[in-house]
Amino acid sequence: MQRLKVNMDFSKYKGKYVALVGDKIVASGKNAEKVLDEARSKYGGKEVVLRKIPEQETLIL
Amino acid sequence: MKIEFPYVKEKANVVPFILRPLARVVIRNKEREIIQDMYIDSGADITLLPFSVGTALGFEIKKGEDIKRVGGVGGSKISVAVRTARMRIGEKEFDCRIAWCLSEDVPLILGRLDVFREFEILFKEKEERIVFMAIPVNN
């Protein structure tokens, strides 16, 4: 499995899901299922990783 | 088995940046599998997934199902249904109960139930890394 990336800029994706293939954001949106479907249809066979980017005001308690 | 994950630096309101511990986790339900980066939350009783992540895993609400209302430290409540799925962290795979939230308004949270008993977890915040050490089965 690919290593988790730490130095990516997700500032445009606050409150959204992003799908990652390697270092690349390949899909984004408010619905995880649609984001994954889009990423897998574009990059079938490659490892797709889902991440949800918090809003700036979110505190994880 | 030992696996390490990084802290990620994220913008916040209360302070300019917050370091948050993230783990790469695989969750599988029947034939569906999602690799996801989840916030490790030692204060969370149970792993929590938003609604559309659950539907992507094939979770469904059964007719007449007892939906639970649960609250966090802030007092606000969310509706959840509990599901069991296979979870894999590193090479360690196990059954994990998950609170599937019926809205999107929650992060991807890796909570304690069924997870923290499988690992010794070191939060090395100063070094910006988290270490998961699998506990052998016969311990």
Description:
The complex is a heterodimer of chains A (61) and B (139). Chain A has one helix and three strands; from the N terminus they run ββαβ. Chain A has a domain at 11-52. By secondary structure, chain A is α+β, with helices and mostly antiparallel strands. A three-stranded antiparallel β-sheet of chain A has the order 2-1-3. Chain A has one helix at residues 32-42; strands spanning 17-21, 24-29, 49-52. By secondary structure, chain B is mainly beta. Chain B has a single domain, classed as Beta Barrel (Cathepsin D, subunit A, domain 1), CATH 2.40.70. Helix content of chain B is 4%, strand content 55%. Chain B has one helix and ten strands. Chain B has one helix spanning 51-56, and strands spanning 2-11, 17-29, 32-40, 47-49, 68-71, 77-89, 92-101, 109-110, 119-124, 129-134. In chain B, strands 1, 2, 3, 4, 5, 6, 7, 8, 9 and 10 form a ten-stranded mixed β-sheet that branches. The longest helix of chain B has 6 residues, at 51-56. Chain B starts with a strand and ends in a 5-residue tail after the last strand. The mean pLDDT of chain B is 93. The interface between A and B is medium-sized, with 24 and 35 residues.
What is the compact description of this entry?
The complex is a heterodimer of chains A (61) and B (139). Chain A is 18% helix and 25% strand. Chain A is built from one helix and three strands; from the N terminus they run ββαβ.
- Main pleated sheet of chain A: 3 strands, antiparallel
- N- to C-terminal distance of chain B: 14 Å
Strand content of chain A: 15-25%
CATH superfamily of chain B: Acid Proteases
Oligomer: heterodimer
Low-confidence regions of chain B:
none
